[in-house]
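To assess whether the prediction recovers the assembly geometry, we first specified each molecular entity separately, as shown.
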Amino acid sequence: MINIKQSKQLSNNIRKHAVTMTSLGGSSHIGSILSIADILAVLYSSVLKYKSDNPKWASRDRFILSKGHAGAGVYAALAESGFMSIDILKTHYQDGSDLSGHVSHKGIPGVELSTGSLGHVLPVAAGMALAAKIDKNKHRVFVLMSDGECDEGSNWEAILFSSHHKLDNLVAIIDRNRLQSIHSTEDTLALEPFADKWRAFGWEVMEVDGHDHDELFIALDKVKTSRNKPLCVISNTIKGKGVSFMEDQTLWHYRSPQGDEYDAAISELEKNDA
Amino acid sequence: MMRDAFLKSLTSLAANDKNVVLLTADLGFGVFEEFESRFPGQYFNVGVAEQNMTGLAAGLSLEGKRVVTYSIANFPILRCLEQIRNDACYHDANITVVASGGGFSYGSLGMSHHATEDLAILRALPNMSVVAPCTAKEAGEAITAMIQGGGVNYLRLDKTVAADSSFESPFVIGKSRRYKEGDDITLIAIGGILDDANIASMELKKLGINARVVGMHSIKPIDKDEIIDAAINTGGIVTIEEHNKDGGLGSAISEICMDNAVMPKKFLRIGLDNMYSSIVGSQQYLRSRYEMDSKAIIKKVLNLLKS
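The predicted structure of the complete assembly is given in tokenized form:
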């Protein structure tokens, strides 16, 4: 079962860390991080099997952030989940830091794969899922992708491959916030009818509210490795969710919160603390 | 053939280690059928999708597999170069990328199938070995060294080969082999075109010129000691590669000489001159056409020694 209170607090902590990290480092992508904070919280609080004191535990579920630009959110989730000290988050994006703007595995326990160039992860995750099938291992492989990165053809190669090989231990979660770096997904390179595309490629598809922890938990926790199909969970989200003036604004794909904007963002998020 | 020797060694490696996995991007008709039937779970034809193939290889490798990705000419390297860089090299994966058809092996098929920049592009990547065997036997030795040694490797297989030779020392990535002794000039070749260097050296001998011939099967890592020895102890260095000159074998050898402050008495790079070939033909025809076959080597060596 999901502990909603715990999961909600984790998502709020991820949001606060991310606002602070992107402010301190003057880095981009806060909107993209806020968009996935609830998904990360449900995964790390209630879905993924892991041991933070043994990050390479063989039976762990694998999780990979494909939209590497939201890496600060994963670093925050890992620190909150005991993989590393929360103090380290302050070094994000700074000179000499391991915590790169796009998520890196080097020197950071709990990160499976360094990402940042879009369209790389689903193929790698399919390879991991295939290896688990070959070796008869029961763990699952979760990938969190952006909707915009579904422009990349490499993803569709992996989508074909994964259904052909019945990789039902593979889950693609789509952060469907409908905004990419300049315009909306539909004005840039239309994805709709999006769910139908995944279905046509042989995937099982579920659509959820990507900020509703119950809905996310139900979709992600019920991953059975006997459906003979990989699962795509299209999570309808709002970019910038949780900070009202950032919500649904492409501006906050690149802008870093500074001064009054930082204070206002943190103050709004602190109101959600239990 | 290099491909047969490669497959024979790979089959033996796969029989001894169930973690050896072969991925092909839908090439190898009439080649991999036996491998596929003998090793279920160790062979996947992933379809015509090289980016996915390379990503899959990285995922399989991170889970403990030793993966070979296979296709022809430029397909397993250039379409998926970023996957090789980010997903394979940066993650210290155990992946060997095999391209059947180096240089003008598929000469008649046209420019898309001419692999004439691969060595330069791949040797630019950190954490990668780049090997183009000169003989069929070396192709088998190279894949064995790559799978057993691990890491990310590129193996370029030519259609034509130089004759096998017996060596006391085993094949080692990064250690060249001397096919002929001589000190008037040193011919250093990579890949099957070593055959033309061998023929040229025999003809030069009739003219009283003793050419040393070195098969430099590894361009990365490269055999620094052999290059410095040739620069110091012979009359000069001629490099021979079925590849564009920019960034290729001649470039790599120049770098070694300059970095070590040794100046060959004469120096010439034989290869393609910053070009794509719209002309087609057999591998041997195109070597002749672009003046890198044995006849051209003889002519160029004689001119170089006169200069």
